[in-house]
Request: fold
Amino acid sequence: MIAAALLRASLYFAAATPSPTPSSGPDPNDITPGVVGFLVTFAIAVVVVLLVIDMTRRIRRVRYRAEIAEKLDAEQARAADDRPEDDERP
Reply:
């Protein structure tokens, strides 16, 4: 009994709701970002490329400085090991 009532109600509501019809809106070809949108997108792309180039340069510079610092520390340690100690004299 409940199933039959639910079936009748669903058929009633399905028949009562009209199917949507497409409305005549603006032409999709008229709605474009235009020249301003292209220029903004192009400017953002140029800025991103320049930032990536700058970041790569800075990372490379930091890496080279670290390598040079390691070489200098190794040379100083080697020079300290090669030095004769004054305390070892008899």
Notes: Helices lie at 2-16, 34-82. Residues 27 and 33 are 14 Å apart (CA to CA). The chain is about 70% helix and 0% strand.
